Fold these 2 entries.
Entry 1:
Amino acid sequence: MTNVDLLQEKIKASGIPMTVISAKTGINRATIYNKLRNRGEFTASEIVSLSSVLHLSKPERDKIFLSQSVN
């Protein structure tokens, strides 16, 4: 399960607007927002893209996307 609270913190801390994140990752903005509301899981390719754009370390990526609890 995705730790959406932590992911949202990382998005906010990056200072990158969601439209730019969407464009750079190739993930539709509505899709990102839906997944941030736990209306679906991020795919492996989406995780790789988001990790790259947000400059997440492997431990940060794992803490966000491999979380055992739902937020």
Entry 2:
Amino acid sequence: MSKIIAIIPARYSSTRLVGKPLADINGLPMIIRVWQNVSQSKYINQVIIATDDHRIADVCNQYNCPFVMTDPELNSGTERVYSAFKILDEEQDIIVNIQGDEPLLKENDIDNLLNNFLKTNFDVGTLITKINTSEEIFNPNNVKVVLDKNNCAMYFSRSAIPFIRDSEQEHWHKEIYWKHIGIYAYRKSALEKFVSLPESNLENYEKLEQLRLLEFGCKFYCVETNAKLISIDTQEDLDLLRNII
């Protein structure tokens, strides 16, 4: 049995929605709702919040939720996950980076990812879902991924990929396009490699940190989910989520 820890990075100073980890969602702070969902996983041994702010730490204490304080100057969520992992100083085989702004992500989705990923020798496991509308395809906030025949990611992009030369763009949604969902199951060696590498050119161009490992040869295994998830980046996203719940 692999030892698996999930770490949820929670930064207070989000540029588009300040304090969003503490946003109220029908009576629960968003970060606590995410922590509760992840804690139901049958594969994960431990779930920790990695934060940079005492206000989030205070809420964690209020709900008896384990947390680690990390440097507010860290550049990415993945760096925050690694920092928390090192502070905890525990032996783990898999470290799962759970986005703190995915409150609709359920334990079934996480377990589906881990169940499939653990059967492979890939470096990182992640979730994908089918795109059904043109709006999703051409929205740069939706990260698209192209797969090979083994469900290995060939490239992640904010652009609409692949480009279908002989079809009008209004019909592209009839083909298979994949949206990437930002949950990552890292083998320990892959996470250590990520923080040891410099920021890559592709990562800098697209502002997608997963391209760092991809550009340096790591393999991402992609597992499909049918879950309808909403990543909370703006007040409009938050209002929509509240209506759904």
